[in-house]
Write a structure and sequence with these properties.
By secondary structure, the protein is an alpha+beta fold. It contains 26 helices and ten strands. Among the domains are: 166 residues, no CATH class; 108 residues, 2-Layer Sandwich (Alpha-Beta Plaits); 91 residues, Regulator of K+ conductance, C-terminal domain (Alpha-Beta Plaits, 2-Layer Sandwich). It has a five-stranded antiparallel β-sheet with strand order 3-2-4-1-5, covered by helices on one side. Pfam families: CitMHS (PF03600), TrkA_C (PF02080).
Length: 634
Amino acid sequence: MSPDLAIVLGLLAAASAMFVLNRPRMDIVGFLMLLALPLSGVITAREALGGFSDPSVVMIAALFVIGEGLARTGVAARLGDLLVARAGRSEGRLIALMMVAAALMGAVMSSTAVVAILIPVALRMARGAGVSPRRLLMPLSVGALISGMMALVGTPANLVVHGEMIRHGLDGFGFFDFTPFGVPVLLGAVAWMLVARRLLDRPERAPAGRGPDPAPGPDPAPGPASPPGLAAWAETYGLEGRLRILEVPLDAAAGRPLSELGLHASEGLTLLAVERKAGRFARQVVSPRPETLLDPGDLLLIAATGPGATALEEIERHASRLGLVSAPPPPGWLGTLARGVGMAEILVAPDSGLIGKSPVASRFRTRFGLSVIGLRHGRAPAAAVAPEEPLQPGDTLLVAGPWRAIRALAGAGGPAGARAGELIPLALPAELADVAPAGPRAPWALAALATMIVLMVTGWTGNVEAALIGCLIMGMSGCIDADGAYRSLHWRSLMLIAGMLPFALALERTGGAALAADGLLAAVSGAGPRGTLALLFALTMGLSLVMSNTATAILLAPVALELAERLGASPAPFAMTVALAASTAFMTPVASPVNMLVVGPGDYRFMDFVKVGAPISLLAMAVAVGFVPVLLPF
């Protein structure tokens, strides 16, 4: 062993130990290796810094922007709503849909972001179906991990392996080259989870952590840092009993502006939202304005703010007069409302000019863009908000309106009355962080995603150029702004990858990759190429359980290519095996951020991951060893 190789292996051992101990953070480990490798003299500083210009790093950064654009436009959240609508109360259907959705979404955006988006959906689905969240959150994490096996951009590890092949003058992988292997793993994992869910059962106890839960019903008492939710306010102010849905038939009111309907706050009525079709399958919620024209099939959400029975009778009278069909709000109305309309609790300041005036007399909605739908004198919510009831100092108002107006309450750009101290924001809802600020631009986000995929699949441009074109479309269409794009970059991940990439060059230059290949060949002496694939898969999977799957791919991709050269075989099956194995972090809760996210809300223990994850890992190995050589011959 040469002195240079000893130095590289020593640094590699130190990095691995720090990864296992998680001290310091992984990105700091990458920075330390970025500094140590040039100082060792094995590679130059220019070569060490080359990781920042590596196409894999640039492409991963672009994918962070694409994923943020999908989140900001609500594309991912709408898929969650579709899951809720399609799943019903069948637990098996819930599990299957959750896993498939996580795998498909994670194939084109960060799997960690996918899990963060779908945890509230899973909790809501669990409550609606009357099942334990523990039975849904583990399948969610499994599906998100399998997303790395579904497409080239499913995980940074795939891009690292692809980049290593390009660096060696090989063709690399296509966008869907991973899909034939990911699909059988996903189908097998779904079938296994339908059985393994019973392994997660145990006597219920209070969860170790609590994820966000927008489902209707009173929230558990939150900690001091936990913002309230719309569900809690709906319960506190009794909203559900004061709401009606008015449907616009084909032959009534259609084409008329809202200003002509006569639905006025002075009569104890507040029009909160209009839900209408947005394409063949989707619907959107829009904030009502006087000039908004009604379309056939529109649904008007009306709140009765006056005394209960009288106000509801007033709604029915107007519905009859206008030829509209009245009905109570359907199940899930709160989630639908939150897509376009927000709520907040505000306090009437002691020196406010609103004191002594009713919301109607003060032209509250005109001035602030918000409607008063609930009122508290002291701690007790009032049964109604009488149209002419004057406001008093210290009154707490529950207001509803466009999310942009709710956001304005929290910042210096708020309405003039808020800036003057007339209104004091008391509580902003938890859902505020999840609302898509660029929702109307969702079609552009889908167009950007489709353009990127088409360019990658057809090869009309390079993969990096395709991802950057997708980012350009996102930016030019307003799906994401420049500041949002910079904030979307996960600098820890980028630093880790850029810092560890030089190891591949150092191992190759010092003979480390050849030494590892010799060791693997000796271990599987006489077992042939498939036996070598099995050992390579097991080694990659084992390392990915204790360190970043990206770092694992960086270290083992050159070893896989060296193995192929020693065996005189095609490098593609060996490289694909490393990429697939890097996405099998099923067996420990610390193997991936995806697993860490569900531990608290699901109240999982370490052995839960072992019991559920071990069979799925073996399934993935069987697929890799059995099918990879068939589609990618030796």
